[in-house]
Amino acid sequence: RLEEAMKNGASDQEIAELMQELREATDDFQRRHIQAHLEAKSGNWAATARGLGIDPGNLHRLARRLGLKD
After folding, report:
1. DSSP single-letter state for residue 66
2. CA 69 to CA 52: how far, in whole Å?
3. CA pair distance 67, 40, nearest whole angstrom
4. How far apart are CA 64 and CA 62, in angstroms?
5. How far is it, in rounded angstroms, from Cα 70 to Cα 37?
6. Which residues contact 46 (CB under 8 A, 6 or more apart)?
């Protein structure tokens, strides 16, 4: 939808709204994906990071941003 809106000359406000929707959908997907891996690893963050193939520090920062950690 975003690409189509940009091609069709959508206003800056419309594009900003679509970008916000995309950010929210991405955050929701990442939140659910991390939670599923975390549950599969019995709450072990290091094992979750390995399973996701990302650095543990990056996982912790992402989890805080997504509201999964304090």
Report:
1. T
2. 17
3. 19
4. 5
5. 18
6. 56
Which tokens go with 24? 């929210």
What's at 41, amino acid-wise?
A: K
Query: Scanning the structure block, which residue is given the tokens 């970008």?
Result: 19
Summarize pLDDT for 13-53 with one digit per residue, the tens: 988 999 999 999 999 999 999 999 999 999 999 999 999 99
Please choose, from the candidates 20, 41, 22, 27, the residue with its C-alpha nearest in 3D space to the C-alpha of residue 56.
41
Residues 6+ apart with CB under 8 A from 51: 37, 40, 41
Cα distances from 20 to residues 2, 7, 24, 40, in angstroms, run 10, 18, 6, 30
Q: Which residue has the tokens 């206003």?
A: 11
pTM assigned to the model: 0.82
Structural contact between residues 34 and 63, judged by C-beta atoms closer than 8 angstroms:
yes
